[in-house]
Amino acid sequence: MKQPLDQIRSYLVRVAFDGDGYSGWQTQPNGVTVQEILEKAFAQVTGVAVRLNAAGRTDAGVHALDLPADFHLPYEFDLPALRRAWNAVTPRNISVREVCRVPDGFSCRYRAIRRTYRYLIDNRRCPSPFLTRYAWNITDKLDITSMQTAMSALIGEHDFTTFRAADCEAKHAVRCVETATVHAVTAGELSALDAWWPYPGALEEGLLSLTLAANAFLKHQVRSIVGTLVEVGRQKIAATRMAEILAARDRRLAGPTAPAHGLALIRVDFPPDAFQDDAARGRPIQQEDHDGFA
Length: 294
Prior knowledge:
Elements: E1 2-17, H1 34-46, E2 53-54, E3 63-77, H2 79-88, E4 94-102, H3 108-111, E5 114-122, E6 136-137, H4 144-152, E7 156-159, E8 174-184, H5 187-193, E9 207-214, H6 221-233, H7 242-248, E10 263-269
Parallel strand pairs: 3-10, 5-6
Antiparallel strand pairs: 1-3, 1-4, 2-3, 5-9, 5-10, 7-8, 8-9
């Protein structure tokens, strides 16, 4: 499965996982994390210790459809065989979707230009039992038009101190939001978007999708924004106040932090040339099929 080399090779792995029961992505002293599980599984099948460097960190209970991570080792791997073996010893709620070669020294964290998160809200008095792990149930009827009006104030480059966690370690709170939308989801839309969705028949009227895309996010930023938008949808906060709340840089003015289980990282984008090898060498990067998983 592996061939030793006299130089370091760089690889990228794309993973999907159900965050329920995990203490987030990043390895930590207390709690089981997705990174820890994957690194131990890799060592089990290859006999080599590895460090996975993800494009972002997810909090406890947050899901991911496509989280890329890079690793660097002095080995050439049979990538299809590695992927199969890796999945064989990984829990079923974590999936290695793709493994490929990338340019030497590649960094998912620093090469990524956009992260996209989606938050699902089950807006019905009688919630679907199939959505309880993936959507926040809000029984009050939400005003989607007001929520979208409020979200429009988030577009562009702003200081998002209002929506960061108290223990956020980021050096600054300036982020550039490219997309901020909310809409009612149809069964056909979600099942087509997410091939992994197991219960397309469960998606009835009342499922809302809030999508945010930015160059990067602060700790709890998306969930704090969602909690504030829910208050807007309940008409407890005027939609026109969102710009004022954002500019105040005061967490006390925002709504509560939404629960983690409704949030999923759905996409990480890179520049068009991010995966090109040295053009002068003309050597293509080894890559296996990714099963339509973008």
